[in-house]
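Per reviewer request, we include the raw input and output of the structure prediction for the construct analysed in the revised manuscript.
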Amino acid sequence: MAFFGMFSDLVRECRNGTEPQRTGVASIVAQFVRDDKYADRCWPILLELCDDPSPEVRAKAGRALHDERVFGTAASPEFLQTFLTTQAFEDDPDILIDALQDHPGSLILFADLVCDTVTKSVEIIRDPERKPDRRIPMIDRHLSTVLLRLYEQASDSENAHIRDRCLDMFDDLLEHRITSAKSLLEEIKR
């Protein structure tokens, strides 16, 4: 109903309302963004809520990425790229990394997103101002898994630039000691 213009005043009020109201809007929008019928109207609201002052609202909005259908919407590459600039991504880069890892289709369409996610994750992990995060040790394995998968999918000559970019990303992970050569080799053996 809210996406056909009905209750638009109420929706606007809740988007700017109390934390529980904004959390409710985030929960609803996170459900509807997965449907191509509503995605174009939901993505902007979802991204707005990913920069909400409340960590709880941001986390609820970020949960939209836990469903693989979010990658199937027509607008998803553009909006997922924008998600990298949100506070929700800063809070938990693993949200997007896990979503990319769980995506059953080809990552070629999302090559820029994968590489930019690796770059931003490296920045977040290396930030001396950031509090130690218990999930950080898992991020390295997830990053290398997604990168390796993209590298393997870009096997034809027209995607050589993607393979080169993946190799550069692997260099960054090794240089910044986010992943070790040993864990990378283990990942390749799988």
